[in-house]
Automatic annotation (TrEMBL):
Compartments where located: Mitochondrion membrane
Name of this chain's protein: ATP synthase B chain
Chain segments annotated as transmembrane: 6-39
Annotated GO biological process: proton motive force-driven ATP synthesis
Listed GO MF terms: proton transmembrane transporter activity
Signal peptide span: none
InterPro entries named among the record's database cross-references: ATP_synth_Bsub_B/MI25
S-adenosyl-L-methionine among keywords: no
Pfam families referenced in this protein's UniProt entry, alphabetically: Mt_ATP-synt_B
Primary localization class, coarse: mitochondrion
Taxon lineage: Eukaryota, Rhodophyta, Florideophyceae, Rhodymeniophycidae, Bonnemaisoniales
Length: 179
């Protein structure tokens, strides 16, 4: 429709001799017709091509914006977590300091308590051991004295050692006095 209007206006201008019909005008008219036909024929495919390219660009931009948004959210989450991590380490430091302080304060009491638990048992064991050793020593001494008593008459009568003879005579006097 637009082209028809342009043709009618051109014919009117040529017929009124406003435009001269020469080679240059014919070339110009041919060029304009070519451009108009090319535009009409190719405009749909160019428009589709531009539409697909614009959709691709739009999709690419939205995808990149979504990716940037995810990256920013992830970065913010990491930053938030790192701040929490640092705060948790600070709390852990405080708890560890307090724990060490309480441990150092209570360690002597704990060692005394453990010593008081173990020491009576060890003391009791040592007392029992001492009692048993004293029994063994007493039994050993009694056995040795018994042996000496049994050997004493032998030395008095058979070997006649002067010390033993003296002891023998002293013992005899004591017996006589007792009787």
């Amino acid at each position: 429709m637009k082209m028809l209007n342009i043709i009618i206006i051109s014919v009117l201008l040529i017929s009124t001799n406003v435009l001269l019909l020469d080679e240059e005008i014919l070339i110009l008219i041919c060029f304009i017709l070519f451009c108009w036909l090319a535009f009409n024929q190719l405009s749909i495919s160019i428009e589709k091509d531009l539409q697909t390219q614009s959709l691709k660009i739009e999709k690419s931009i939205t995808d990149s914006l979504v990716q940037v948004s995810k990256s920013i959210k992830e970065l913010l989450r990491y930053k938030k977590n790192s701040l929490k991590f640092a705060a948790n380490f600070e709390l852990l430091n405080i708890y560890l300091f307090n724990f060490t302080k309480v441990l150092i304060q209570n360690l002597p009491n704990y060692t005394i308590y453990k010593f008081n638990l173990v020491f009576p048992k060890r003391l009791n064991f040592v007392q029992r051991l001492e009692h048993q050793v004293s029994k063994i020593v007493v039994l050993f001494i009694i056995k040795k004295l018994n042996q000496i008593i049994l050997i004493k008459p032998f030395f008095n009568k058979k070997i006649k050692v002067t010390n033993f003879l003296c002891f023998y005579k002293i013992n005899m006097r004591e017996y006589i006095e007792i009787i």
